[in-house]
């Protein structure tokens, strides 16, 4: 978890008393990056192969997935605090609103990445283009629509 | 809510006993479509203007958003069942795995759309490109990275 220290310009808010809906973790993402500090700032199509391991419960939902060379993967950035509305990225030192950033720190820490499929075996999908820490919970797989 | 009837070929699974993480609804999306039956199958950049109304709590997180002509909007498709792993869209009559579809029916009913920004006034963002029912809960706003 993040510690509570704020950089200059950063602003936190009180989170709501309760959440409004629940997410199922449907699998896990395996990557070469053991800590957040190891992760690339952004996944690249020529990056290393990572694996998306879907829980057995959802196996049947993979039918026809092989017809899509590119997928959109949604995952839950479970190590990120959720209460910052203004952030000062170390890279720029400029303070920016959370919704003008793709930082993992946001009210709902959901990441969206488009990946190239390398192969599918059973409930394991090998892909390139991810940037998350090893063990990140998977929440959705969709055909890519960005092109 | 959907009723429990399945079309030919559709398969449901038992959902997990509990969810693993909680989502905050951070605002609401206003569109011209009162029911799901009214919604277009897919949002288009030349579609009608819709509004994304962010809750006051998160206002500061909009700083610098105006520098992004296109945004990625995540929202929660609150009317959709979550237990289908194979679906038979009425349009095609072909049975397809849930993860090979962008149907709202999926384990975590999170939609992702890229929109063109028309204007920002306070905590209201006017956009084109959405396809969801009026009153859909907002869960995230990010700069678009699809181009």
Explain what the structure shows.
- Chain A has no helices and 10 strands.
- With 147 residues, chain A is an all-beta fold.
- Chain A has a 6-stranded antiparallel beta barrel. A 3-stranded antiparallel sheet of chain A has the order 1-6-7, with no helix packed on it.
- In chain A, a hairpin with an 8-residue loop joins strand 6 and strand 7 (96-97).
- The first copy, chain A, starts with 10 loop residues before the first strand and ends with a strand.
- The model of chain A has no long low-confidence stretch (mean pLDDT 94).
- At the A-B interface, strand 2, strand 5, strand 7, strand 8 and strand 10 of A face strand 2, strand 5, strand 7, strand 8 and strand 10 of B.
The count of strands of chain A amounts to: 10
- Please work out how many helical segments of chain A DSSP would assign: 0
Beta-strand percentage range of chain A: 35-45%
Strand order, sheet with most strands of chain A: 3-4-9-8-5-10
